[in-house]
Specification:
The structure holds three protein chains of three kinds. By secondary structure, chain A is of the alpha+beta class. Chain A has 22 helices and 29 strands. Among the domains of chain A are: 174 residues, 2-Layer Sandwich (Aldehyde Oxidoreductase, domain 4); 281 residues, 2-Layer Sandwich (Aldehyde Oxidoreductase, domain 4). In chain A, strand 21, helix 17 and strand 22 form a beta-alpha-beta unit. Chain B is an alpha+beta fold. Chain B has a five-stranded mixed beta sheet with strand order 2-1-5-3-4, sandwiched between helices. In chain B, a hairpin with a 2-residue loop joins strand 3 and strand 4. In chain C, a hairpin with a 2-residue loop joins strand 8 and strand 9. Chain C has twelve helices and 14 strands. Classes of the chains: A alpha+beta, B alpha+beta, C alpha+beta. Chains A and B meet through helix 1 and helix 20 of A and helix 2, helix 3, helix 4 and helix 5 of B. Chain C: It holds the Pfam family FAD_binding_5. Chain C: This is Xanthine dehydrogenase family protein subunit M.
């Protein structure tokens, strides 16, 4: 028993702790899946379809089987039911049309890159050598490639991605505020605006993107233990285990999934992949460990893509610019199959088109469409960037129509801070926010008025380089998700998260979380939460995650949920430890439990200097020599937290670009943002999330696009043509925060992982359009390539379509290369 | 098979390799130097950057046989033997210049080369000097800070 | 991904290399710096049976003064060429172009001769080499021969080097006192140029006495813009005068159309980049 300890000098929450994870990562002591080597391990190579849509007429594996060190070559038919199936967890409507998705189809391929056979060999090189020898005969079928044509194919007699389904439309999902009782009739609002107000009608393109995480996906399966162990570069070890068990018949208790170090995801590793299923089946069949690591080319071709929507938008407003209605009609390209979240991505956007504005009437409809391209699913923001882009572009158009500054039109329509909590026309309750404060701060950081003056001056002078200012006052829903809400949307699982706190005998702490980090810094941020709440040193907390044997329960990491849902579970587990410790402390201090206070890691007897540290209690419980009668000798506790609401971070992002009107080249000049993400646990990690998010969003605005040619071949199939920005293409950002604590979790936190991406795309495009609006431009299709910007300036169009070809730089010709 | 002899992170190694084996494969598969990683197949991403005879190269774009007789330094050989981090490693941690960490070995190795060449780089020189290294997490903001920090020109991370 | 298997030989002299080439002929590929070849092999776009590595032939490395010209050894790395004081003094245009070529790691490994022999019309060295009137020296079984710049680039990825020959050096006439600029138009820093213009000019007072202009990615080979050069000669180094000459640059070119730009857009960009490159070379940028 010791005298009361001084409370920790500095609170952990809010402190810019350097990350625990980094020591390993900066010295190369890493555990990427591809690093794992097991005795006798075999290597896989996939034989992939070069055609977007084709019938498989025959597969001859004999030459490949004769290859050096080849163990076997297997097709979908060989694996049969053992290969399981790729699941869709979210049929968005009851009658969703969902094509069967076998990891290796046996009779027909539905997109270029789909696996038709797998080679197993002693080395990866030999597996690849033999894969070249597998002879597959295909009968090419017409491919459904254009989203608009595909959507109408069942009426027009057009090409079907899956002929047996009779349609490419998998689902039509609709929300109408009048029907839901959350608002008025949008058609009436539109009619009125057409008659006497302002109607903005636009069609925007959300181009197809590729998540392009830096670590290519890799999977190792070891079937030699009592449990089959799978290491995978995945965001969702728990969901993967569920899917493996549900579709292969192997009991869930016989499967252990480990996500070791995972090199980025951004939604792109939120998938149960065909390659994981194939590796699992092959390992089981051969009884040997196997590994498959994809190449970057394979990754770009077959890992799921994101976005890919056409958005038809109608915004109604009064002449003064007060919004009266919003109608959204989407076409969403799901690609060849309905992926695990798949058709749910546009639905996640359904609640966000109205954004921070007080629309009295709202209608949303998405038509989810199958095509013969790579399947699409979550990519950073998942539905919300698409929604935010649409509304923030429309608000700029409304401002231009009314003839006021884009910030002024927003202020006229946004929810004022005293109106929170606010129930929106989409039926969500926004818990907290202060759009005025964030905007004022962002304007100040930006030097908004001075930049507007410079813009006017450049315009007056007819400068070849024009300045554009772009605004995005975004909000998003994050912290997926209240299980009841997910249930009402027909989602196949809940949205809770699990945590466990283990008090070790020597006083250090192991914390198990069901969240599964892949670069977010959970080990650091979660340690800070536990250190603060439990009053133990930051260094004494060890965060364990990403292994179903340790973290048996969890729903993984996506949708900006880890902190706001997983963090809250952690808080509750810690609180249970404290409550378990209380009677022990009372017993040992010979005091009444009611007289004990817990603070700074110690129980103290009120009004005395008698106290006992939590670590001492842990040691005493371990010994169990002197516990209250009937007490279980354990402080370990767990909690499963199901959120009751989402939370709604928001922010004001301001972007200045310089547009070279001679070439159409866009140069970032300045970017500032002021985000309200509630209480910040670690400002350093938050800043990193914002910076990275910004660049991904900016990249959608300016650079990235997955392009297929008329045959359904991905022409942006390497980093030569799929343009990720480099350090030389980006700038230093200025970021700040205002704080309206969330009221939906006890830490007051809001999600931050997706904020930068959601906000920045429209800020940039608004800036580009703003730079050339005086030249007659009111839209430029993303990505705003120099050619598109130049064409928009010169013919007033939105810049036209991309020519679908890529020049070779690594040629196939005989000559030349040295 | 071809016999190669080289020095990797200060140790002499000798192996028979297939001519087609890439240097990065040799490091990872034969030597277990898995700190160096492979991120692409077109030499765009730079994740595999190591030093070959003192200058930075993409080890996925060099054959192991071409490194015969050479001295190779990887991320695993950068810190001092007593574990003291190289100033560039320290700067990446201090400035939160990494998130998932997959690009980090390449970023750090290229930064070491960059600073050797130009000990006092401007922000523009840093950004251009890292154009052969892709990162998908950080938006490069804190990577640039880290390089500046290592060069002694700034005060660490901006949060 | 891993290349298909091949045999490997690393000769230490040009003669040995030629012998290996003679022996393996069509089944062989020469590897210089390998920065374009290795991706090709990794993606299995090509699978030679033999790879002949020139990397151990020391005589092919280095830059030396050849009197009225520089001699750049084919195996000199981009990095070494770019930093070479002789190149900076006598062929500034090449120094300027190399700062834009690929990235630092590739410049450490890639070679001057290898890049030129690869003959990618989007490569950054063809246009400056042509603009400077370079001569390409190749060695074959019958000895050496010189290929004038105008004849070197034949088509996409195709040069006048015969299958049994090796590019050994490039002779670059000295352009002492000429200003130079390489204007590269890209969407992303690590991209091949959509269009680039290499310009070098000799001023007399405020007048452009002579100009040399080369074009990157405006056809199936690097091009020299003779019409622009002629129009610039004797003109004042002013924006208007240079723009007038630059307007001729796209005549007769046949640029590609691809996802980075249609042919007509490339022609437009070429005129803008030409004007900027010439003005910058004249110190007026």
């Amino acid at each position: 028993m010791t005298a009361t300890q001084e409370p920790a000098a500095q609170a952990e929450i809010g402190r810019d702790r350097r990350r625990k994870e980094d020591q390993r990562l900066i010295t190369g002591r890493t555990r990427w899946t591809d690093n794992i080597t097991l005795p006798g391990m075999l290597h896989l190579a996939m034989v992939r379809s070069p055609f977007a849509h084709a019938r498989i007429t025959s597969i001859d594996t004999s030459a490949a089987k004769a290859g050096r060190n080849v163990v076997t070559v297997l097709t979908g038919a060989d694996l049969g039911e053992a290969q399981g199936a790729c699941i869709n967890a979210w049929p968005v409507v009851e009658d969703q049309v969902t094509p069967d998705h076998l990891p290796m189809p046996t009779d027909r391929v539905a997109f270029a890159g789909e696996t038709v056979a797998v080679v197993v060999a002693r080395s990866a090189a030999e597996a690849r050598d033999a894969a070249e020898l597998v002879e597959v005969d295909y009968e090419e079928l017409p491919a459904a490639l254009d989203l608009k044509e595909a959507a109408a194919a069942h009426e027009s007699g057009g090409t079907l991605a899956h002929p047996d389904l009779g349609t490419n439309v998998t689902a039509v999902w609709r929300f109408d505020s009048a029907e839901a009782g959350t608002g008025g009739d949008v058609e009436a609002a539109i009619a009125e605006a057409r008659d006497s107000g302002i109607l903005i009608e636009r069609e925007y393109r959300q181009q197809r993107l590729i998540p392009a995480f830096m670590e290519p996906r890799s999977v190792v399966v070891d079937p030699t233990g009592e449990q089959i162990t799978i290491w995978s570069a995945t965001q969702i070890p728990h969901i993967l285990r569920f899917a493996l068990a549900a579709t292969t018949g192997v009991p869930e208790s016989k499967i252990r999934v480990i996500a070791p170090d995972v090199g980025g995801g951004f939604g792109g590793k939120l998938q149960q992949t065909p390659e994981e299923m194939i590796a699992f089946a092959v390992a089981r069949r051969l009884g040997k460990p196997v590994k498959f690591t994809e190449t970057r080319s394979e990754s770009l071709l077959t890992a799921h893509h994101g976005r890919d929507q056409w958005q038809r938008l109608t915004l109604a407003a009064t002449k003064e610019g007060t919004v009266t209605g919003l109608k959204v009609d989407l076409l969403a390209d799901l690609g060849a199959y309905v992926a695990i979240v798949g058709g749910g991505v546009p639905v996640l956007g359904a609640f966000m088109f109205n954004a921070i504005y007080k629309f009295p009437a709202y209608q949303f409809q998405t038509t989810n469409v199958l095509t013969n391209k790579a399947w699409t699913d979550a990519y950073r923001g998942a539905g919300r960037p698409e929604a935010t882009y649409a509304i923030e572009r429309l608000m700029d158009e409304l401002a231009a129509e009314v003839g006021v500054d884009p910030l002024e039109i927003r202020e006229r329509n946004w929810i004022n801070h005293e109106e929170f909590p606010f129930t929106t026309v989409a039926g969500l309750e926004y818990d907290s926010g202060n759009y005025e404060a964030a905007t004022a701060r962002a304007k100040e950081m930006f030097g908004y008025d001075a930049l507007r003056a410079e813009q006017a001056e450049r315009r007056a002078r007819g400068d070849k380089v024009q300045l554009g200012l772009g605004v995005s006052t975004f909000t998003e829903m994050c912290g997926l998700a209240p299980s009841r809400v997910l249930g009402s949307l027909n989602y196949g699982a809940g949205g809770w998260e699990h945590a466990e706190v283990r008090m070790l005998a020597t006083g250090t702490v192991e914390v198990v979380t069901g969240a599964s980090a892949h670069g977010q810094g959970h080990e650091t941020a979660f340690s800070q939460i536990v250190a603060d709440r439990l009053g133990v040193p930051f260094e004494d907390v060890e965060i364990l995650h990403g292994d179903t044997q340790i973290s048996h329960k969890g729903l993984d990491t996506y949708g900006s949920r880890s902190l706001v849902v997983g963090g809250e579970a952690l808080v509750r587990a810690v609180d249970k430890v404290i409550e378990k410790a209380r009677p022990v402390a009372a017993h040992l201090l010979e005091a009444s439990a009611d007289d004990l206070e817990f603070s700074g890691g110690s129980f103290t007897v009120k009004g005395t200097d008698q106290g006992m540290a939590i670590q001492e209690i842990a040691t005493a419980v371990f010994a169990a020599h002197n516990l209250p009668d009937g007490m279980e000798p354990s402080l370990d506790s767990e909690a499963t937290y199901d959120p009751v609401n989402f939370n709604y971070p928001h922010g004001t992002h301001l972007c200045a670009v310089e547009v070279d009107t001679e070439t159409g080249q866009v140069k970032l000049r300045k970017y500032v943002c002021c985000d309200d993400i509630g209480v910040v646990i670690n400002p350093l990690i938050v800043a990193g999330q914002v910076h990275g998010g910004l660049v991904q969003g900016i990249a959608q605005a300016l650079w990235e696009e997955a392009i297929y040619d008329e045959n359904g071949t991905l022409v942006t199939g390497s980093f030569v043509d799929y343009l990720l920005p480099t350090a030389a293409d980006t700038i230093t950002f200025e970021i700040d925060h205002t704080t309206s604590p969330s009221t939906t979790n006890s830490l007051g936190t809001k999600g931050v992982g997706e904020a930068g991406t959601i906000a920045s795309t429209p800020a940039v495009v608004n800036a580009v359009v703003d730079a050339v609006r005086h030249l007659g431009v009111n839209d430029i299709t993303m990505p705003c390539t120099p050619e598109r910007v130049w064409r928009a300036i010169n013919d007033g169009s939105s810049g036209g379509e991309t020519t679908e070809a890529a020049m070779p730089h690594f040629d196939e010709t005989e000559g030349g290369v040295q | 098979m071809a016999r190669i002899n080289l020095t990797v992170d200060g140790s002499q190694v000798s192996d028979d390799v297939e001519p087609r084996m890439l240097l990065v494969q040799y490091l990872r598969e034969q030597l277990g130097k898995t700190g160096t990683v492979i991120g692409c197949d077109t030499s765009n991403c730079g994740a595999c950057t190591v030093h070959l005879d003192g200058t930075s190269v993409k080890s996925c774009n060099v054959l192991a046989v071409q490194a015969d007789g050479a001295e190779v330094t990887t991320i695993e050989g950068l810190a001092a033997e007593d574990g003291t981090l190289h100033p560039v490693q320290e700067a990446f941690r201090e400035c939160h210049g990494l998130q998932c960490g997959f690009c980090t070995p390449g970023m750090i190795m290229q930064t070491v080369d960059l600073l050797k060449d130009n000990p006092d780089p401007s922000e523009e020189a840093i950004r251009l000097g890292l154009e052969g290294n892709l990162c998908r997490c950080t938006g490069y903001h804190n990577i640039v800070r880290a390089v500046q920090h290592a060069a002694g020109t700034t005060e660490g991370a901006s949060a | 991904m891993i290349p298909a298997a091949f045999e490997y030989v690393a000769p230490t002299s040009v003669e040995e290399a030629l012998a290996a080439l003679a022996e393996h002929g069509d089944d062989a590929k020469i590897i210089a710096g390998g920065q374009s070849l290795l991706p090709v092999l990794r993606m299995r776009l090509n699978a030679p049976e033999w790879v002949i590595d020139l990397g151990r032939i020391d005589s092919l490395r280095g830059v030396r003064d050849g009197g009225d010209h520089l001699v750049i050894g084919a195996m000199t790395t981009h990095h070494d060429v770019g930093r070479d004081p002789l190149v900076h003094e006598h062929a500034l245009l090449i120094s300027k172009a190399i700062t834009h070529l690929a990235d630092a790691q590739v410049r450490h490994r890639g070679t001057f001769g290898g890049a030129l022999a690869h003959a990618d019309p989007a490569g950054d060295l063809g246009a400056p080499a042509l603009a400077l009137g370079s001569t390409f020296v190749v060695q074959g079984p019958g000895g050496t021969r010189e290929i004038p710049g105008a004849d070197f680039f034949v088509d996409l990825f195709e040069t006048a080097i015969s299958d049994d020959e090796i590019l050994t050096e490039v002779r670059v006439p000295k352009h002492d006192g000429w200003g130079a600029s390489y204007e590269k138009f890209v969407r992303i820093a690590h991209q091949w140029p959509i269009v680039a213009v290499a310009a070098t000019v000799r001023l007399e007072g405020d007048t452009i006495a002579e100009a040399r202009v080369g074009l990157t990615n405006m056809g199936s080979t690097p091009l020299r813009a003779h019409a622009v050069e002629e129009a610039l000669a004797g003109r004042p180094a002013t924006e208007d005068a240079v723009a007038g000459a630059a307007a001729l640059v796209a005549d007769g070119t046949n640029p590609p159309s691809d996802l980075n730009g249609d042919a007509d857009y490339r022609r437009h960009i070429a005129t803008v980049m030409t004007r900027r490159a010439v003005l910058a070379a004249a110190g007026r940028g």
